[in-house]
Amino acid sequence: MNITQILFWFLSVLALVSALMVLLSKNPVHSVLWLIVVFFAISGHYILLNAQFLAIVNLIVYAGAIMVLFLFVIMLMNLSADTEPQKNVWMKLAGTIAGGCFLISACNVIYNAQNVSKEIAAKTALLNQGNIGLIGNLGKVLFKDYVVPFEISSVLFLSAIVGAVVIGKKEKNKV
Amino acid sequence: MTLLSLNIDWILLIEKLVLIAIVVFASLGIALYTTFGERKVAAILQDRPGPNRAGPFGLLQPLADGVKMFTKEDIIPNSANKWLFILGPGLAMTASLMSCAVIPWGGTIELFDRTISLQIADINIGILYIFAVVSLGVYGIMIGGWASNNKFSLMAALRGASQAISYELAMGLSLIAVLMLSGSLSLGDIVKQQQAGWWNIVYQPLGFLIFFICALAECNRTPFDLPEAENELNFGYHQEYSSMKLGFYLFAEYINMIMSSAVMASLYFGGYDIPFVNDAELQTHLGNWVALFQVGTLLIKIVFFIFLFMWIRWTIPRFRYDQLMNLGWKTMIPLALVNMLITGALVLLKMNNWHF
User: Fold this and answer.
1) CA B6, CA B258: separation in Å to the nearest integer?
2) Residue B231 touches partner A, C-beta closer than 8 Å
3) What CATH architecture applies to the domain A1-81?
4) pLDDT truncated to tens, each residue of chain A (175 aa)?
5) Is the peptide bond before B89 cis (omega within 30 degrees of 0)?
6) Chain A within 8 Å of B351 (Cβ-Cβ)?
């Protein structure tokens, strides 16, 4: 058992337990905090796969920005277990079935991928050695092979920014 | 393979643990005396003696303050969310100490036939790691403010968080210019490049100014200490805190100052590079002592920046909140963008041998 395996098991258990706690905690703020722990555990996994850039961007974008906005909204609206609207039973049932179907198909794909060919099976875990996740390689791939999709997605973000500014302006005029 | 046959590089682990312990305790010690320095600087600027009772020149004052903090009654308000109330200061402290991992504190030393780098982790995304840690610093304030269950604390926490998010953008944009120059995200590499050539401040004066102002805002220092504006918010996000939990919040601010000074020194002022001296040549003559001198150089640079922080704090009054947001979004970000574009154009031109 080397240090990578110890970390792998530790991070996996951490991710699963905190993912469960996201669902089980009554207080929405606690849920958000557990979700942040999940992101940390997943980032740890990315680092084990030597995808350092992905790991740190996951932390900056999700744990650092999006979750802060979640916290903002929850704290300002002062949500708590009492005020949370209860969805009806059929909705819950439908959600469970849909989620279960997705889980089964995802498991199936991963399981089959191992059986399809030895080549893919050997590629399932590049622990500590793959270098595609390092920032230099990632940048080259993004700006050479995938430059058009990359630019299109940046235009998408730009339109989102413009939209946000427009919405912000409108409210200012009203007041 | 049994469960207990551990295959771990114990020596590396011990080396890193010792390094982490040294860096963490050194930063705590420096932070302790930064509080003393702050009071002395304030006293000098306001033409009064400052703390001078405990020990010679009042040098034992921080210890006395620490003892006072520890022995005060620790109150957790009845309506507070108990666990988060405790978690808040801890998170603030952890986040501010975490950034010390990627800062190159000095060159390398040779001990027991091992070359030990005085940087805990030279990861190739060092500067992004610092960015991630900075954005996590918000949680300490937000959780503490919310868990206190006090309107003023919550308002202060929201202010602190929105301020940190706003200034992070300009900070990131001003960093991009440095990264374009150095072509690396590793702080170790950036410092080594500056050792070989000019310091980055020569190429990036505007970028440094933007970074410095954003660092002031990220550390919640005056003129950006809106989360602690006592005339509007009583006391700020740590209003309900007492004893060492309050001490942790105050302490985290000083550690943040130290870390941001270290980052600024590494990015723009050559890090541990001893000015006017060829470090590599010196190493052949003096060996391990050079590393010590380098650590000393970095510490001097850090102390200078901390002094600058204090000087500004006791000179400039606090902004209004809308002024702060306007400065962040309407001045800093466009300036940083212009700086980035100009740097990018010049880098491209240089690669093209100054032909259009």
Assistant:
1) 38
2) no
3) Up-down Bundle (1.20)
4) 677 788 888 999 999 999 999 888 888 888 888 999 999 999 988 888 878 888 888 888 888 888 888 888 888 776 655 555 666 788 888 989 999 999 999 988 877 776 666 665 555 555 556 666 677 788 888 888 889 998 999 999 999 989 888 887 766 555 5
5) no
6) no
